[in-house]
Task: structure prediction
Amino acid sequence: MATMSADDFSIHTKDCPTVGDGMPLSDLPDEVTSIGDLDCECWSEYDSLDEIS
Ligand SMILES: [Zn+2]
Result:
């Protein structure tokens, strides 16, 4: 499950320590097409977008 930060609209895992008050996302935004589009280190445990949803 992904979470969108309310501060800067960046996308994080629900367990990310930096996301704080986030909004749960049922789907990743369309502009996210690869794991490389997700900047935060909280995604480093994932190898591909298929593992996220
Ligand atoms: Zn994060």
Remarks:
- DSSP finds no helices and three strands in the chain.
- The pocket of zinc ion is lined by residues 12, 16, 18-19, 40, 42 (CB under 6 Å).
- Residues 1-29 form one domain.
